[in-house]
Every structure is written in C-alpha cells, then in structure tokens.
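Shift notes (night). Ran Collagenase-like protease while the centrifuge was going.
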Amino acid sequence: MQDSTFKPPKIPELLSPAGNLKKLKIALEYGADAVYGGVSHFSLRNRSGKEFDFESFREGVEYTHARGKKIYVTINGFPFNSQLKLLESHIQKMASLKPDGFIVATPGVVKLSHQIAPEIPIHLSTQANVLNVLDAEVFYELGVKRIIAARELSLKDAIGIKKALPDLELEIFVHGSMCFAFSGRCLISALQNGRVPNRGSCANDCRFDYEYYVRNEKTDELVRFSGKEIYARNPDNGITMRLEEEEGVGTHIFNAKDLNLIAHIPMILESGVIDSLKIEGRTKSSYYAGITTLAYRRALEDYAQGDFVESRYKEELGTLKNRGFSEGYLIHRPFERLNTQNHWSAISEGSYQVNAEVSEEGKSALCRHTIRPNEPKEIVSAHLDSVCLGKNDIGEIFEKNGKKYLRLFKILLVNGKELESIHSGNENAFILPFALPPFSFLRQRL
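Came back to this:
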C-alpha cells in the first residue's frame, strides 16, 4: 500500500490482442487503450488472421476509433521475393483503413511501408530482436516510431535505450505465451511439420511431450527413456547402460511457462521509460482477452490511486488457463534460468471454468460449459457495479461474499425452446433473466 504523498508517473498504454472482431470488442470493453490484429499471412498469426477478412477488419478499425481508442495492424511476417508485389498491395489496403500504426519486422518492410503509406507510424515488431541502443538507433533513423522490445530485453537496458533516444517509444510484453527460442526465431516447427514460425504458422512443437532415446553403440539399438531409470541389456555380451533422469526435468523439455509481470507493474511504471504494455494472445479465448485486460487495467488504475495490491490481480489472472507463470527476462537474465520452463506438462490449467459468454446486447448468452437449472454461476464483467440484483420466473441475480451470481430457474433459448440443461457446442443462445453488461462471462470454480 502506497502512502498519501504518492505521485504516480505517467500511465502507459495498455495494448491487448484482437484475434477477431469479437475479441477486439471485448478487449476494448474490458479496458484496453489500444488493440492489435491483422489480416492475411503477412500477419504473424495465421490462425488469427483468418478470423478477420478485410471488411470485418475495417469494421474493427471503425469500432475502435469510434471509442477514441487505437488499433495497430500486424504486418510482421517475413516475406519472400515472390510475395513482394502482394505485400505492396496489402500495405496499400491496410493504409486505406487509416490505422494508428503498422507493426513490421524487417528493415525492408519498414522502408516499403514508408514509401507506400508515409502517414502511418511504424512500430518495429519484437521479431526484430532489438536488445541494445545501437540497433534501436538504426531503426529510429529509418523512421520507426516505436520499438516492441525483444522479450529478452532487461528493464535496465530499456532505460539505457530511452536515455539515448528519448523520442523513441518503447513497448514491452507483460503477459502471455513465451517462445522457447529467441523471440520467436525458431525452426523446430518448420523442420518437423513444414509450418514456419516466422511466417505465422507455428505448430507449437515446443509444447510437445518428447521421449528420450539412447543408442547402444555396440548393438546400434535405440532404447526409449521414459522413466526414472532404464537398464538396456544386450543378450549377446551382457552390456548394460544405465540412464538416470535428472531430478526435476520431465519430458516437455522445450515448454516455456507463460509470462506474467503483474507483480512488477510498479517497478515498470516507476522506470518512466515504457510507453506501452502489451498482452500476447490473439489466438487465445474471448475470456482470456477480457480477463487479462481487466486485471492489468485495474492494476494500472489502482497504482495511479496509490492502492496497488498485487494479490487482487494475481488471483484473477490465475483463473485463466496457463502453463504456469514466470517473470520472463525483463527482471532476470535468461542465463539465470529462474523457473521459466514447465518440463512436466503443456496442459493449461486455470482455477475456473467458463460456462457462458454474454452477447453484445447483454440479453442472451452462449453456453461454453454445462449449465443446469438452479446452479449458481459467478458473473464476471468490466462493469460489475452496474449489475442489479433481482428475481423473476427465468432466474435470479444475487450477491454473496462480495461477488454476484446468476442462477437460472429454467433454460429458455431465444428460439423459444426450453431445455433441461445446456451444454458446450450448443450455439443457440439462451435468455438471461436480466440484462448484463456487454460481453460479460458466467463461470464456476473448478
């Protein structure tokens, strides 16, 4: 808890992922100052890029600007010569939407973007791996307005870059998936699956469960290493190989934990050098887009009021599916190896199950996990204070231990049907007893 004389520094922009139009709207509803997303394979998330076409992305730009917020277009793939004409056309189309910035990864695309759309600010992608003043200065001289720092950049080095180049904006990742490789420069997926990470189609091979094999040099026999110890005996000469697994090292040998810097928000802000805090996750769920944005928004606002309480935000972020959390490399150097890997499982666990997503108009919801009559579900919203308590023949909203819950007495679909229960996969919306804020969620503790 900060004292009464506390004077907060300038609060940086909160930048959230927009994997599709719905997630864009959710991120803005839950407190993002800006969002980022893209269209086509020039965006470094192919799966996400396919969820936007040109018209829906145009709608997203207009929706964002109508709310006084910003939107940045991802054009951060690594193009081949055969794609340059297509890239030129794509840059022209994106510029016609008048976004607030292009996110690009290479010097050539920086130059091309300036030639085609000199009015659009350039943000340098984290894929460019800027770690020092020299590289930052080169891109600054090329006309880059903002550098999205490599995840391996330390806060100390960020301070050094800002001191040398005070007009250059710095953006850092504060939450989301971490790559096993150096800021995404990985070829494992390309070699094993033909899916190239730096062209937007990573298969996430680093999350796989790998098995260890050891070759017996005398017999050329491969022995699978799957337990604590394995003895491989050659029946001809009796040679024995003894393999012993290193304690604490499982079979997910490349699997990085997720980044979570919520505890370091005060330190980051007090450095005075960071202009934007970025949340990774365009391919993650709508719930993720909302909850991460809400947690970091509240942390920033509470800090500005001198009321930053770490446990508030950590608890909410813990409701999300995750691979375990680490502080990444902003505070600690990579070689320190301070608990950044999850060797045991790539399974994402969270403390809550999302049961339903409320529509934009707030009068109905889609089921995401089984809901039965008379089972209370917690209401999650960016505007929970506006949710009124009440009861009618469809259901009720009540409060308990400072939280608000919704209980359905009966499940009525908007098409007029009544169900005994509703399950995930049913894309028929059900009616809420009372309207809720747009894009609210219903959830239950696991």
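Confidence is low (pLDDT under 50) at residues 227-233. The two ends are 31 Å apart (CA to CA).
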